[in-house]
Amino acid sequence: MFRSVASGCFRWGHSSRRMVSTFYEMFPKSFPGGEPSFNVDQSQLRKEYRVLQSQFHPDMVAGNGDGADMDSSVVNKAYHVLKEPLSRSQYMIKINKGIDLTEDGQKLEVGPSILMEVIEINERLADDSISNDEIARIKQENDDRMDAIVNKLRDCFEQEDYSTAVELTMELKYWTNLSNTIKNI
């Protein structure tokens, strides 16, 4: 069972009462030693998540009441944060530098050329005459762009270059939003 005891700290397990301070510690096979890492084996993380859900999901843990609900929701949140490159990067920056890039008040600028490009692409996507081929091309370009940023982020975190990681994470947020727009077309 997880019990929130402080910001970012949780009690782990029904009997052991071991404390964990980050989501990484909840997935010891994916992140040995609980060390924060941008690199993740998605398959291993998914396997560990399924095992944890089988232990903590309220439907699987009869009679544990609200505690099981909370445990399951913490497992879900941890998994979804660590699964996606954007949220994983935001989380790593938060736990390593104390900068919360998910807060609305945390407005960090990206370059004007990036903003203009995003605006232009959104305008093209909003055009009723856009073809499926054009949408597919824009999607592929955006996927390639996001992959390149993720690779740069991987290098930044390995080198502990958090200032560049913050900039890249803000940029990735724009391209991720564009990706979500494309999915909804």
TrEMBL record:
GO cellular component, one term: mitochondrion
Record keywords: Chaperone
J domain: residues covered: 22-95
Molecular function per GO: ATPase activator activity; protein-folding chaperone binding
InterPro entries: DnaJ_domain, HscB, HscB_C_sf, HscB_oligo_C, J_dom_sf
GO biological process terms, semicolon-separated: [2Fe-2S] cluster assembly; protein complex oligomerization
Pfam (any one): DnaJ
Sequence similarity: Belongs to the HscB family.
Entry protein name: J domain-containing protein
Organism of origin: Kazachstania africana (strain ATCC 22294 / BCRC 22015 / CBS 2517 / CECT 1963 / NBRC 1671 / NRRL Y-8276) (Yeast)
